[in-house]
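Why does residue order matter? Because the sequence determines the fold. Keep that principle in mind as you read this record.
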Amino acid sequence: MVMHPELMLGLAHDRHRDLVAEAQRARLLAAARLSRRSRRAGQGSAVRGQPTGTLTSCEPVAVAPAR
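Structure:
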């Protein structure tokens, strides 16, 4: 099968663009994983009674008397 040079060049450029896009996607996912891992490490040990996230605590809260 004989292919024209323009067709071969077009296929090569398409393949190159696909490889570049895949590499960019992989770098983006790796950066997101790293960022997420570092944020999780910062949350580490939560102090009891102090909320760590956006959800409210299920523990009963004792009200301190007014002074």
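The chain has a mean pLDDT of 80.
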